[in-house]
Structure formats: structure tokens, C-alpha cells
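DATA SHEET
Item: assembly model
Revision: 1
Owner: S.N.
Input lines:
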Amino acid sequence: MPTLRVDHAKCTECRMCYYACEEIGINAVYIDLEPRHRFEIDAHKCTYPTCVVCLMYCPAPGSIVEAETGRSLVPPPPDLWRDRSEKWLRDVILAAKERP
Amino acid sequence: MATILPGKELAEELQMASRPKALHTPMEQVIEAAAAQALTDNQYFRLVGQLWAMKRMYYYVYGAWGSSLTINQYPPSVDYLFAKQVYDESTHEMLYSQAILHKGWAKFQRSALRHPYCQFVPASGIGLYIFSMRGLANYAHSLRLAAIDLGPKVLELGWLERLAAASQDEYLQKLFASQVPETRSHVMMGRFMVERFVSQPVDVALCQELVAMACRDYTTALQGIADFVLAPAVSPPRSSRN
């Protein structure tokens, strides 16, 4: 599965990705424990492309990219704008809750 | 032309007065226990939970202070430095919250907020310190920043560095160590404020009094945390003065 990473040259550290990810209980966005406290994405917790909530809230073009291809996902490209109903959101939250 | 720094000597004096206290805070007991590998996972949870509770309450303190930062009272650099300090405290608050989730002590932030170890208890050492700091809202910004940055922040810097060194757990070691540069910058902000903006005799006297008071109340908060962490049986955190 493809994974996400933050492009620190473009990230504004607004924290929207962190709070959006935390709000739905996935907690894949974390603060790196080094003095600059940059935001990173834990590939083991992130459920992309099932969940794209961080991409939907990110305001800085190009700041979240697909790690494998380097493709910019902000603003989200058309293929990510599929039907994301309430049921989908419930499934994402339930999946997060069921993780050990 | 040399820059005029009316409060240069006072800033140095206040910082030097706080430094020895940084080596003798109640956190020493926790640091010693950590170094001796005598802290259980549950005790680390109590420690991080209470540090998180205290950091959350800084929003309450800084919110009150920020509302009285008036236009033209200080140059923009002062507003910027204060905003940066609020941002850093927010980052540290998030780091503690993240540690609780990372360690599996709580699954979600919501459940962490409800956990007794992470509660803010008004009648506690932390409560005393937080209400004391919020009470500084009516003082000039230079005085209250001096109080917190040349008092408690000097103490915090001292125990943070040593707790990081004493922690055997790599994650917790990094958690504490990564906060050191930002905390050190807060001390520098306090120094900057005093050097630039404290010159009147009445302000000098107030600075000395407020720094001593802030150190005293912060020490009470740390005593409450240390007691809570080191107690064999857990009860809600209460003030050591109660």
C-alpha cells in the first residue's frame, strides 16, 4: 500500500493534519521527538488511501506527498475525491478502535 | 552606538538566583527514582499525565495574559516572542498527550482526558501555581514574563535535562530532551524582556518579588507531582499544603 510523508520544505506546521487525524482516533500524525518538533506520519498507523482526512484539511500545496512516488497530494487530486459517505467515516473510526 | 539595556544586570541577577533552586526541586526524588530504574510504567503514566495537565493549564494562564497585551505598549518583537512561547507550550502539551497514546496508557485523547492521572485538580499544587500565574495578568507584560521565564522556566530547564538523562526508556528520554531547547529559549525571552524593558526601581523590586513567588509556587506544583508519582497507593493529586 502507498504511504504518506510530510514535505517539510512546504509544510507550514499549522497542525491541521495532526488534529484531524487525532479527532478520528487514528493518531498517525505525530510530533517527532527531536528539537525541531516537526510533524511526521507513521506509516504503520496511517490508513491511506482508505483515509485521506489529513489531505482534505492541509492548506499548504505539496506538503503531503506519496512517499513511494513523490506525488503531491495537496490539494487532493481528483482520484481521491471518491464518494466518502458517513458509513465510510464510521468504518475508518471503527477500524481505528479495533486496532490493538 | 552601543545598545542600551537598562535591565541587563537585573536579568543576570534573577537568572543566577533561580539556577541553584533548579538543582533542588522536588523533581529530584523522581529523577533519582528514574535513574535507579525504580519507576514503574504506572508511575511514569502518573508523571506524564500530571505534566500534561499542567501544560494544558498554560493556555488558561497565557490566555489571560494575552488579552492585556495592548497596542503600542511594546514593539512587535515582544508579541512575536510571546506567541512563540505559547506555541512551544502547546507543542509540549501535545508531546505529553502523544506520549500517553504512544505508550498505550490511553487509546484516545478523549479517554486520556477523563483518566484520573491526567486530571487538573484545582485544589492541588498545580492549581496553586496556575492560579498564581494567572493572577499576574494585571501586571506589565515584562514583569510577568520575567516572573515565569526567569523563575519556573529556569527550574523546568534544570529538571527536564536531568530527567531526560535519568530516564531509561528511550521514548521518554527523547520526550523530555526534545523540550530542552525551547524551554531554554523561554529563559532567553525572559532575559530579553528584563534587559530591554525593566528599568524603574519599582519594576526592579516587583521583578525580584514576582520571580521569587513564581519559583515558590512552581516548587509547590512540582512537590504535588512528585508526591503523586512516588506514592505507592494512588489517590487524586492534592496539594502538599492541604
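QC remark: Chain B has one domain: 8-230.
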